[in-house]
């Protein structure tokens, strides 16, 4: 009977996945057989090499004990390890799917830890020879003895091919994943208590994707469940929409409210869709007026502008939550935001006690979109919609006039593209500054459009620029680099100052 799955505590940030080496990542049987045959000749004994290499797993001394005198085992192990680098390493190949399995861990920003019964220096030789993307190799541990290393390294998933690998994973409280490449049968591995049996490592990447998505979604719901009630700082984007929907699922619509701060920096086009989605979930929609323009640090528009914006929002929402009897305020910050490195707004929210359930559960932007798709939320593929102030170059004062002009310009660009039958997903008109009668604009659209309908020399490019000029900009040009989220940050000379 398989052991119950481990708890659904968040597995990332800090994801670490462990792998056994022999017959999990590499097919070491030919090399080990060659060394055993040489050893047998040197010792003048007969060793059943084929039988000994059929199901690798136990330490070498246990493999040799039935065939040698007790006092001869230790020296034989030492000699085996001396012979191993020359006789076994060069000809050993990685098993199919090994590189892809390691890459799957990297795709989730995880660490890779190899925990093996093999002599550590020889294990490292294999890893180095094959160029396996590994962070740590720890050898000479077997069975439940692997648990200490797995716990120390924070491994939440351990992949092996032997029943003793299962024992190590279970003793560490990790999810045990078994592959059928080492000779153990599906029935034996299931009986040992493994959680998952894969035919080979080629199946690991899709399994890991699904495992992490399920685990992190469960962690999100578990977190929300203990909160009691929640006010969600709600923009109508993919992140805050998923957080709102999850809170409704767990707590019920009567214990959740959505709050959207209305100000000059929130595009008019974003307001109705956000309100309609929240109401479709049965949630109260609160639209307090925020006054970030009254904060000098916000208007100054230096690299820390977002700090003042988020401070204003949370200073408005925290008392609003108390007024409506809601225990907490939460933002839609996701796990990618936390590690992005330039998020002064996150610091402002944290200083005011805002929760970040998506990030705490380890949900990345891609995972937010996937869960939203499965839950049939219309925001699952909605493009990012940063506030209008993000379009104004740092150092240029943010004013209602500038924001309104940017919004008019973006609307004009969309209208021209729609009239030409050109669909656009991501679009920004950036205010690069200049006097009121000499303001300059840069138009950013999906890079894929630049080599087609918006190739240089096409009349449509000039039509777009003319449309932007008619909204109040003195000059406009189409960026040949295309849309880049956060491109204004590239203009900061010292971004570290604002973290």
Automatic annotation (TrEMBL):
Classification of source organism: Bacteria, Bacillati, Actinomycetota, Actinomycetes, Propionibacteriales
Top-level taxonomic group: Bacteria
This protein's name: Hydrolase
One Pfam assignment: HAD
Database matches in InterPro entries: HAD-like_sf, HAD_sf, LarE, Ni-pincer_cofactor_biosynth, PGP-like_dom2, Rossmann-like_a/b/a_fold
Species name: Nocardioides salarius
């Amino acid at each position: 009977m398989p052991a119950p799955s481990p708890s659904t505590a968040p597995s990332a940030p800090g994801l670490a996945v462990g792998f056994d080496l022999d017959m999990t990542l590499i097919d070491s049987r030919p090399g080990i057989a060659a060394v055993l045959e040489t050893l047998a000749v040197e010792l003048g004994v007969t060793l059943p090499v084929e039988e000994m290499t059929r199901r690798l797993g136990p330490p070498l001394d246990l493999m040799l004990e039935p065939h040698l005198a007790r006092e001869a085992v230790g020296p034989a192990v030492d000699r085996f390890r001396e012979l191993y680098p020359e006789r076994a390493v060069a000809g050993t190949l990685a098993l199919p799917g090994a590189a892809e399995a390691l890459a799957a861990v990297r795709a989730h920003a995880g660490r890779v830890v190899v925990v093996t019964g093999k002599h550590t220096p020889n294990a490292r030789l294999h890893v180095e020879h094959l160029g396996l993307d590994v962070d740590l190799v720890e050898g000479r541990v077997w069975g439940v003895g692997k648990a200490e290393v797995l716990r120390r390294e924070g491994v939440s998933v351990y992949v092996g091919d032997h029943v003793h690998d299962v024992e190590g994973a279970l003793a560490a409280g990790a999810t045990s994943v078994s592959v059928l490449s080492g000779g153990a049968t599906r029935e034996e591995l299931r009986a040992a208590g493994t959680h998952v049996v894969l035919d080979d490592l080629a199946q690991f990447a899709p399994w890991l994707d699904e495992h992490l998505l399920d685990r992190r979604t469960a962690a999100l719901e578990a977190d929300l469940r203990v909160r009691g009630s929640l006010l969600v700082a709600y923009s109508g984007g993919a992140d805050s929409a998923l957080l709102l929907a999850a809170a409704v699922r767990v707590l019920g619509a009567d214990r959740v409210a959505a709050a959207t701060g209305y100000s000059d920096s929130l595009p008019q086009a974003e307001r109705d869709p956000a309100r309609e989605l929240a109401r479709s979930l049965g949630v109260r929609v609160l639209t307090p007026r925020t006054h970030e323009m009254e904060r000098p640090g916000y208007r100054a528009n230096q690299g820390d502008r977002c700090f003042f914006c988020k401070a204003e929002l949370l200073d408005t929402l925290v008392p609003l939550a108390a007024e409506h009897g809601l225990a907490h305020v939460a933002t839609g910050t996701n796990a990618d935001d936390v590690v992005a490195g330039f998020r002064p707004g996150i610091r402002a929210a944290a200083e005011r006690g805002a929760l970040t359930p998506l990030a705490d559960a380890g949900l990345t932007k891609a995972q937010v979109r996937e869960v939203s798709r499965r839950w049939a939320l219309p925001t699952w593929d909605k493009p990012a919609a940063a506030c209008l102030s993000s379009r104004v170059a740092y150092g240029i004062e943010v004013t209602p006039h500038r924001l309104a002009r940017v919004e008019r310009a973006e609307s004009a660009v969309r209208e021209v593209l729609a009239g030409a039958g050109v669909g656009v997903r991501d679009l920004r008109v950036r205010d690069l500054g200049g006097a009121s009668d000499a303001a300059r604009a840069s138009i950013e659209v999906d890079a894929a459009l630049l080599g087609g309908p918006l190739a240089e020399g096409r009349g449509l490019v000039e039509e777009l620029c003319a449309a932007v000029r008619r909204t109040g900009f003195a000059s406009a040009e189409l960026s040949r680099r295309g849309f880049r989220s956060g491109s204004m940050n590239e203009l900061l000379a010292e971004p570290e100052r604002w973290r």
